[in-house]
From TrEMBL:
Name listed for the protein in its UniProt record: Chromosome 2 open reading frame 69
InterPro entries from the UniProt entry: C2orf69_mit
Record bears the keyword Ubl conjugation: no
Gene Ontology CC terms, in alphabetical order: mitochondrion
Family annotation (Pfam families): C2orf69 (PF10561)
Keywords associated with the record: Signal
Gene: C2orf69
Length: 320
């Protein structure tokens, strides 16, 4: 959806440069010097299901009194087009969006969450180098449109994320890593988790919401879920004709009761498009239902006085 609409809007690199100039954008080599580590082929809940990860560790001055880094973690799921910087640069449509490469997003998030480890999960497949497909987390078609399902032990989105984090932490030898799913005693002291989905990446958060009722009944997984402090939906969208936002009342009831802080940040690009009017309706229903169940989700429409644009769609990553 992002790619095809980008052509229609006709934005150029010059437009995006108003948000992040080339001088402000750090090169991959500079980022690698800021504790950015690229982890290829990290296995998840099944050895054959792997994802590439980026990890940007917090600065040393964010460490605790013992000199060890804290155990706060932020996980980001990207949208269409976004990829490693050098891969985006090789694609004509990707080159103009280098300011929003996975490396640059990691840096942006490190400013937003300076005391946390920033994990960027690359989609397992990029159809035509454009369409992000999170099939390791949720069953999806070639364009990344999801087919959501309830919780199934050891194979769902929660299980895959936990295994990715556990294996990723061990690979880089972080102190007190998350252990494989066993129970409360496998969660390291001080561990907390923030989940952020942007655009297509929100399908992973949605799948977790659908899994939530069953996952909370699994003692091996419930202990992990209770350490998720916040979930951020940033201008969610995908090429399917519905279920861009979760509207199922039963699963939203579980989310409202979970204690997780819920945040929705949207722009007119996604929720005010008359050609996809269901997206705005679903977003409103998502917020209204959570409020009816006693949750207090934060909900903000950014750039509401500006015409819908891909520029502002990406800018929500800076503004949330």
């Amino acid at each position: 959806m992002l790619v095809t609409r980008a052509v229609a809007v006709g934005l150029s690199l010059v437009t995006v440069a108003k948000v992040i100039t080339s001088a402000e954008r750090m090169s991959s080599s500079q980022l690698l010097g800021k504790k950015l580590q690229r982890l290829r082929g990290v296995p998840g809940c099944d050895p054959s299901r792997v994802n590439d990860l980026l990890l940007l560790q917090p600065d040393t001055d964010c460490s605790d009194s013992s000199g060890k880094s804290g155990n706060k973690h932020v996980v980001f799921f990207h949208g269409d087009i976004q990829n490693f910087e050098e891969e985006m640069a090789q694609q004509p449509e990707g080159a103009q969006w280098l300011s929003w490469s996975l490396e640059q997003v990691a840096l942006i998030l490190s400013r937003r969450f300076p005391d946390s480890h920033i994990w960027v999960v690359r989609a397992s497949r990029m159809y035509l180098h454009k369409f992000s497909c999170y099939s390791n987390f949720v069953e999806s078609n070639m364009f990344g449109a999801p087919e959501h399902s309830p919780y199934a032990a050891d194979i769902g989105a929660f299980s895959h994320l936990r295994a990715l984090l556990s294996n990723g932490m061990k690979r880089v030898k972080l102190p007190n890593p998350l252990q494989p799913a066993k129970g409360a005693d496998s969660i390291p002291a001080g561990f907390s988790l923030v989940l952020v989905g942007f655009s297509k990446g929100c399908v992973v958060l949605n799948q977790m919401v659908y899994e939530l009722p069953g996952a909370l009944l699994d003692p091996r997984m419930s202990a992990f879920i209770k350490h998720i402090s916040d979930m951020y939906w940033l201008d969610g969208g995908h090429p399917g004709g519905s279920k861009t936002w979760v509207t199922d009342k039963q699963v939203l009831k579980e989310l409202a009761a979970s204690g997780v802080s819920i945040h929705a940040h949207v722009t007119p690009y996604e929720v005010c498009d008359p050609m996809r009017a269901w997206m705005g309706r679903e977003h409103r229903q998502f917020i209204k239902t959570l409020e009816e169940f006693g949750a207090c989700p934060s909900n903000k429409l950014h750039f509401e006085d500006d015409p819908p644009s891909i520029e502002n769609h990406f800018r929500v990553i800076l503004e949330f």
